[in-house]
Amino acid sequence: MSPEVPSFNDLLAECDESAVHLEMRDSYTPFDPVFLDWRAGRRIDGPERYPEWFDLVRTTIARGVQMRRIRIVSEPLADFIRFEYDVTKGLNVAAGEQVRWLPRRQASDLALPGNDFWVFDGRIARFGYFTGDGDFVDHDVWEDPDVVKLCTSAFEAAWERGIDHDDYRPA
């Protein structure tokens, strides 16, 4: 584990080739105002509501960095994951991310780390820590080659089984 934790934006800015993200939770940031608006039935325009993320991804993709995200999800989908599904095409995919979904029951035989993570250029792993309810707690960065290799291997195994966002139909 690295003692200093660079910001996510700094890690992404230093990326030359790839940034991959594996998500395994059924709830994140349950008090996110955009999520709460979605739950109230309001139409969500992802780039309008998350302009910093949309611009960051577009800028990163324009530099030639490939961004891929796999979401391992329980079915039927929890409300927050259904919200993510609803905004993914207009936000993540529209910005240039490749996104796949993997039903949790199809991941039972995969060796997965205990926390969500990003891997940057196959060199650095950034783990995110959340409470049981989905509130963000903290993150840290690992540069240990064995940890990065574990995360990269787990991501690629899940990615191979994942269903492209355009083809995934939530149960």
Write a short abstract of this structure.
By secondary structure, the chain is an alpha/beta fold. It contains 6 helices and 7 strands.
Q: In terms of topology, how is this protein built?
A:
Layout: H1 8-13, E1 18-23, H2 33-39, H3 46-49, H4 51-62, E2 66-73, H5 79-95, E3 98-103, E4 117-120, E5 124-130, E6 136-142, H6 145-161, E7 163-164
Helix pairs in contact: 4-5
Which ranges are low-confidence, i.e. pLDDT below 50, for 5 or more consecutive residues?
none
- The number of helices is 6
The total strand number stands at: 7
* Helix and strand sequence: HEHHHEHEEEEHE
Largest sheet: 7 strands, mixed
Which structural class fits the helix and strand makeup?
A: alpha/beta
Strand content: 15-25%
- Lateral strand order in the biggest sheet: 6-5-4-1-2-3-7
Query: Terminal Cα separation, in Å?
Result: 38 Å
Helix content: 25-40%
> What's the alpha carbon Rg, rounded to whole Å?
15 Å
What is the mean predicted local confidence, pLDDT?
Answer: 96
The shape is globular
